[in-house]
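thought: fold this chain, then report.
action: predict
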Amino acid sequence: MNLYTIVFIVVTILLLIGLGLFGLLISKLDKWIDRKERLGKESVFKEKKENENKSAHNDHTKK
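observation:
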C-alpha cells in the first residue's frame, strides 16, 4: 500500500471519530442547558395532564 493511502485512511478515521465526539458533546450540552433552564419549574406535560383529568372529571359529573 502507498504511504499516502495509509495516511488518508488514518486521517479519515480520525475525522469521523472527531465528528462523532463533537456531536456527542453538542447533545450533552443541549441536555445540560435544557435541565438548567427547567430547574424549579413544573413540567408543562404534567400540567397539561392534570387539566385533562380535571376536564374529564367535570364531564363525568355533569351527566
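thought: worth noting. The chain has one domain: 3-62.
final: C-alpha cells above.
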